[in-house]
TrEMBL record:
Its cofactor is heme. Keywords: Heme, Iron, Membrane, Metal-binding, Monooxygenase, Oxidoreductase, Transmembrane, Transmembrane helix. The chain crosses the membrane at residues 9-28. One of its GO terms (molecular function) is iron ion binding. It comes from Anisodus tanguticus. InterPro entries: Cyt_P450, Cyt_P450_CS, Cyt_P450_E_grp-I, Cyt_P450_sf. Belongs to the cytochrome P450 family. This is Cytochrome P450. Heme binds at residue 454. Coiled coil: none annotated.
Length: 516
């Protein structure tokens, strides 16, 4: 008996909620003009109000690839009040990142992404325009200039050698490859940003904690958030995602702020240490440029911190995930691993350690890396785009403000584009002249293409090749007894292996001093 009023209450609440949501839906669903609506691409029918949202799965890129088999290379999904259009072919990619790049260079960041980047004041999520252009120029031309990358080689070498020494102490024991790659990449990035002292003091102490933080940051950013699909609900933060992201950003700041402050002080004191040998770390370049531009003081700091989020969070997880996938594919394909090591023996020699000058000669390893990024692109849907005006793509209308996903995962595995697309065959990259990372060939886009192509590409390529060549030249690797490779994927903005990869190293080089 007592449950009857409760049921009535539930029913009333439910009815009211439906009425409320219906009103909101009508009020906030973008008003697409009738002539445009009839020219939208096809797509699955969702439910009223929520659209396709209840049917989304956690491995979104798989699901979107399956949908392209039903609805064709361009289709639409209504996700709450948000219209989302997915592109799944090289010719459609060309229309967007080549023919109409200036319209599609705008981003559609998730709300968690905005919270995690101080309102999108970083490079990745800032809208297309002069602010983004200045920030990107500063990063690409100043921080990642050829000269600066050359000058920083000693830092990269120092960290990679440290990793080799570390593995040497664990010969015969299982090593977590992701953890190893993380420590190396993070130390390199941190020393390039703050100088090597910071790495010794800080990263060493908080290494594991920091890794968890980086992983969590990208997981939270990739979580489906009701606020993104019903923006009018964002203020309620119903899933607590915005709050969680704000807390993660605070933890990130607590690690970086002392170093930023120290640099500011050093710059103000014009200390010898920083002036000296032309070897400026990123922080120094950033602070100097900000000072030259006379941007207001508080704006400076926010911009600096936002750029650091891109480099530290965006740059490291993509790189280490890729190292992990390469090693997993090589352990799964021993004959390919042996070809890589043969090449290392020929190019580097068994009495030498890998130097960055060797990397351009390692054609087979380069092909292995490219093939891995074909099958396992770290960002399989790139970063979402939002056209700044309505456009026609594939003969269909894409209205202004739509979320546009370029499904690189589908393109990279399309049997009409690649022969035996699911097989791991590095040879397919050996004699191809235009399958590079710059996004010139629309069938291969692991770093995106057009104006918003990955800004960290020169550093990413150097680091990936250097870490992999060094690990594979110094050691032989095998799986722990009885273990099989599991190539299934986890969930998040960056697609990682579901299971951590453990592998056992044995010595490969003849002289112990090559491990010092
Ligand atoms: C394996 C390593 C990496 C992969 C696969 C990767 C991939 C990508 C992709 C797919 C995009 C989006 C492109 C688009 O939407 O068209 C991107 C953007 C970006 N990446 Fe990377 N990335 C990697 C490493 C790095 C590193 C090491 C850094 C920095 C040090 C970096 C910094 C950035 C930035 C700043 C953007 C935003 C560019 C913009 O919006 O203008 N990435 N990356």
């Amino acid at each position: 008996m007592a449950s009857a009023p409760l049921n009535e209450l539930c029913l009333a609440t439910l009815t009211l909620s439906i009425v409320f949501l219906t009103i909101l839906w009508y009020k906030f669903t973008p008003n697409i003009p009738h002539d445009q609506e009839s020219r939208l691409p096809p797509g699955p029918r969702g439910l009223p109000i929520v659209g396709f949202l209840p049917f989304l799965r956690s491995n979104l890129h798989h699901q979107l690839t399956e949908l392209s088999q039903h609805y064709g290379p361009i289709y639409k999904l209504w996700l709450g009040t948000k219209l989302c259009i997915v592109l799944n072919s090289p010719s459609l990619a060309k229309e967007v990142v080549r023919d109409q790049d200036s319209i599609f260079a705008n981003r559609d960041p998730p709300i968690a992404g905005l919270v995690g980047t101080y309102g999108g004041t970083d490079i990745s999520f800032s809208p297309y325009g002069s602010y983004w252009r200045d920030m990107r120029k500063l990063f690409v031309r100043e921080m990642l200039s050829n000269r600066n990358l050359e000058v920083c080689y000693s830092l990269r070498k120092h960290e990679v050698r440290k990793t080799i020494r570390n593995v040497h102490t664990k010969i015969g024991n299982p090593i977590d490859i992701g953890e190893l790659a993380f420590a190396t990449e993070m130390n390199v990035i941190m020393s390039m940003i703050f100088g090597s002292n910071f790495v010794e003091e800080k990263c060493r102490k908080d290494g594991t904690e920091f890794r968890e933080l980086v992983i969590k940051f990208l997981q939270v950013m990739g979580k489906p958030n009701i606020s993104d699909f019903f923006p009018m609900l964002a203020r309620f933060d119903l899933q607590g995602i915005q709050k969680e992201m704000a807390a993660l950003l605070k933890s990130f700041e607590s690690i970086l702020e002392p170093a930023i402050n120290e640099h500011m002080k050093m710059l103000m004191d014009k200390s010898e240490e920083i002036q000296g040998n032309g070897k400026k770390d990123f922080m120094h370049i950033l602070l100097e440029l900000m000072e030259q531009k006379n941007i207001g003081k508080s704006a400076d700091l926010v911009q600096i911190k936002a750029i650091l989020v891109d480099i530290v969070i965006g740059g490291t997880d993509t790189t280490i995930t890729t190292v992990e996938w390469v090693m997993a594919e090589l352990l799964n394909n021993p004959e390919i691993m042996s070809k890589v090591q043969h090449e290392l023996k020929d190019v580097v020699g068994m009495n030498n350690i890998v130097e960055e000058s060797n990397l351009s000669e390692l054609n087979y390893l380069d092909a292995v890396l490219k093939e891995t990024l074909r099958l396992h692109p770290a960002l399989p849907l790139l970063l979402p785009k939002r056209p700044s005006q309505s456009a026609i793509v594939g003969g269909y209308t894409i209205p202004e403000g739509t979320k546009v996903l370029l499904n690189v995962y589908a393109i990279h595995r399309d049997p009409q584009v690649w022969e035996s697309p699911l097989d791991f065959q590095p040879e397919r990259f050996l004699n191809s002249t235009n399958l590079d990372y710059a996004g010139n060939n629309m069938k291969y886009l692991p770093f995106g293409s057009g104006r918003r192509v990955c800004a960290g590409l020169p550093l990413a390529e150097k680091m990936l090749m250097f870490i992999l060549a060094s690990l594979l030249h110094s050691f032989d690797w095998k799986l722990p007894e009885g273990k099989k490779i599991d190539l299934s994927e986890g969930f998040g903005l960056v697609i990682k292996k579901k299971e951590r990869l453990l592998a056992i190293p044995t010595l490969r080089l003849p002289h112990s001093e090559l491990y010092q």
